[in-house]
Amino acid sequence: MLRIDVELAKHWSDAEVVTQWQKLFKGDSLNHDFIKGEPLEYYQQIIINTRVKEYRSRLMDISC
């Protein structure tokens, strides 16, 4: 059984969210660069911000 502490997940940093997501699904090069702290272009940061919102929502929904 997979469980996520929703209250804890709400407080994960963006990098933690992407890291947790990648434990379940293979990430792409943008996700890997973000986790490594590589500088991102403006448009890449917008993509990451959108992904983090979606990943966090989906990760928290797993435990419901």
Query: Helical content, roughly?
Result: over 70%
Instruction: Summarize the biggest pleated sheet.
Output: none
Strand content: under 5%
The first-to-last residue Cα distance is: 11 Å
The number of distinct structural domains comes to: 1
Low-confidence stretches: none
What coarse outline follows from CA principal-axis ratios? elongated
**pLDDT averaged residue by residue:** 91
**So how many helices?**
4
List the helices and strands and how they pair.
Blueprint: H1 6-10, H2 14-24, H3 29-36, H4 42-62
Description:
The chain has one domain. Helix content is 70%, strand content 0%. The chain contains 4 helices and no strands. It starts with 5 loop residues before the first helix and ends with a helix. The model has no long low-confidence stretch (mean pLDDT 91).
Q: Quick gist of this model?
A:
The protein has 64 residues and is an all-alpha fold. It has four helices and no strands.
